[in-house]
Amino acid sequence: MIATPLRLPIAPLLLASLLAACNAEAPAAKPAEVEVLTAPAIAAFATVSDELPGRVVAWRIAEIRPQVGGIVQRRLFEQGALVHAGQPLFQISPAPYRADADTARATLQKATAALARARVQADRLKPLVVADAISRQSYDDAVAARDQAAAEAAEARATLRRRNLDVGFSRITAPITGRIGAATVTEGALVTAGDTNPLATVQQIDRVYIDGRQPAEQFAALRASGRTDAAVEIVTAGGQVHPVKGRVLFSGIAVDPGTGDVLVRVAVDNPGERLLPGMFVRARLPHPTTPGVLSVPQQAVTRDANGVARLSVLDPQDRVHIRKVTAGDVVNGRILIPSGLRPGERVIVEGQDRAQVGTPVKPLPWRGR
Question: Per-residue b/e over 111-150, b at no fewer than 16 CB within 10 Å?
């Protein structure tokens, strides 16, 4: 028996071959473009400022100390009140000093009487010595006694002035106008001129200093720019801006070897006494104004492993290129780019991590500031 050869359907095989050939010749699908947010580099007139942490220091400080000892009879001020120069603050018992003044006054009267008698005696003997009625020695003794009496009177007069000063010192007055703090003694306390602790402290705070520190190089650049007289804005710890701007007075003459900083002192008026001594504040110290510097949103700047600033820049065909730039200060959320960028160039603000170098992207406008 002769075997009949197996017959396979031809049409399905031909159709499969044609489909395979068509699939091989079809081009690959174009990948979807990555969407990124971009913003142009713009030129702006930027004024940069450094915020220096600092402390408020009173314009003037006077520690109230006794110049004579004794018992405190009265406190003549309200603690925390505003006192004026010359206003009485404490009264120390003046009785011992008045008694000493009375004694000195009596001594002066006695010396004055002795001086008058010595003068009369010298005047009486003068014509007699001319007429050789008495010896020259007698007249010289009278003159010496007169001069000694004059010296004793002058000494008694000086002693009386000193005793009167002690009487005046028994009433302690304010040396300056300012706000007085708490008293450290009460009535009945014994004080001496050698006490180490002051009776109270008066601080003038209608004007104050702000003492901060800044790197020596930065302050040197500020002085070289001639803007040390520029207005300095003071910001409190709560973020409130002081209504009056201050001005830079000076920096310390020595650089701190540990930090490389110098002392920067700012003087500012203090209406309403909003700034109190010891308060923590920030002083916004102006930098030299940079005209026409380019700026980009702060988020657009990235840094490589070496800390070099970089920007993802788009060319006219929307292809991505990495550009190394010089990054400056940050002003209102935008970072200044002194070099490495041209005006109008588009930079990627968001989406740098999704974009590939040399490939086109789909740019969308960044709606931020």
Answer: bbebbeebbebbeebeeebeeeeeeeeebeebbebbeebb
- DSSP code at position 29: P
Q: Quickly count: other Cβ atoms within 10 Å of residue 323's Cβ.
A: 15
Token output for 269: 């008026």
The candidate with the shortest Cα–Cα distance to 157, out of 201, 104, 119, is 104
Look up residue 49 and give its two tokens.
């400022």
pTM here is: 0.65
* Contact predicate 65/302, CB 8 Å: no
The type of residue at 253 is: I
- Name the residue among 41, 25, 29 with its Cα closest to residue 345: 41
Bridge partners, 236 (sequence order): 281
Report the amino acid identity of residue 206: D
The DSSP line for 236-251 is ETTSPBPSS-BEEEEE
Report helix, strand and coil shares of the chain as percent, to nearest 5.
30, 35, 35
The DSSP secondary structure of 275-309, one letter per residue, reads: S-TT-EEEEEEEPPPEEEEEEEEGGG-EE-TT--E
The tokens describing 187, both together, are: 């009535």
pLDDT in tens, 67-96: 999 999 999 999 999 999 999 999 999 999
Cα–Cα distance for residue pair 113/108, rounded to 1 Å: 9
**Helix residue spans in 26-62 (DSSP H):** none
**What digits encode the pLDDT tens for the residues 24-80?**
454 554 556 788 889 898 886 666 677 889 999 999 999 999 999 999 999 999 999
